[in-house]
TrEMBL record:
UniProt biased composition (Low complexity): 153-163
Organism: Panagrolaimus davidi
Pfam families associated with the record: RecQ_Zn_bind
Domain ATP-dependent DNA helicase RecQ zinc-binding residue range list: 5-50
Classification of source organism: Eukaryota, Metazoa, Ecdysozoa, Nematoda, Chromadorea
Protein origin, superkingdom: Eukaryota
Region described as Disordered: spans on this chain: 151-189
UniProt protein name: ATP-dependent DNA helicase RecQ zinc-binding domain-containing protein
């Protein structure tokens, strides 16, 4: 399983970023993966993102601010963790988190909820916590370092679009590089993605 490989999770998240990113040329992303240079103008609308004209700057009015979704995921995870009883372990899996968020968000499709959760995972707001059993590996969702310290900050950043290798980092490196304010509390930048 990828959870036990040295770079397995990083590679899996690279594939996830490739599949969910709609604002970058696919050929540029593949070239970056192999440390090649590729100008997006060379694509000539041959990839699906360029053909659909979705490759553009992430800072337009169609972008989605993830602040409320981070807060909602945090509330669901914390409520689920504190409500452990005879029926459950008090931990939540990604499909269950997606289901509970979808029930709360009647105006967003299930596919978009899953895309939001994948972005939160890639950005480090939520993390996977793997539990090994004799027959399987169970992935539970916990709050990541960036999600734990999300105190309603109004600053924003876009979903990484330049380099898949640089945007998908090891969780330990991400935790160590969190920005801190002058009073010692950690601040986080809120991600913005475009949903099609």
């Amino acid at each position: 399983m990828v959870a036990t490989e040295k770079t397995g999770i990083q590679n899996l998240y690279s594939v996830l970023a490739y599949a969910t990113r709609v604002n970058s040329c696919r050929r540029v992303m593949i070239a970056e993966h192999f440390d090649e240079t590729w100008d997006s103008s060379w694509c000539n609308k041959m990839c699906d993102n360029c053909a659909s004209n979705s490759v553009k700057d992430c800072t337009n009015e169609n972008d989605l601010d993830l602040t409320k979704y981070i807060t909602m995921a945090k509330e669901i995870i914390e409520n689920y963790n504190h409500s452990s009883n005879d029926k459950g372990s008090g931990r939540i899996t990604a499909p269950k988190l997606a289901e509970l968020m979808y029930k709360k968000l009647s105006n967003i499709s299930r596919e978009k909820v899953e895309k939001i959760l994948s972005t939160l995972l890639l950005q480090g707001f939520i993390e996977e916590d793997f539990h090994f059993t004799p027959y399987s590996i169970i992935s539970y969702i916990v709050m990541g370092a960036r999600g734990k310290y999300n105190g309603g900050s109004s600053s924003s950043s876009s979903m990484p679009s330049s380099s898949t290798k640089n945007s998908i980092k090891d969780h330990k490196k991400r935790n160590a590089n969190e920005p801190s304010s002058s009073n010692g509390t950690k601040k986080s930048k809120i991600a913005v993605i475009e949903l099609i």
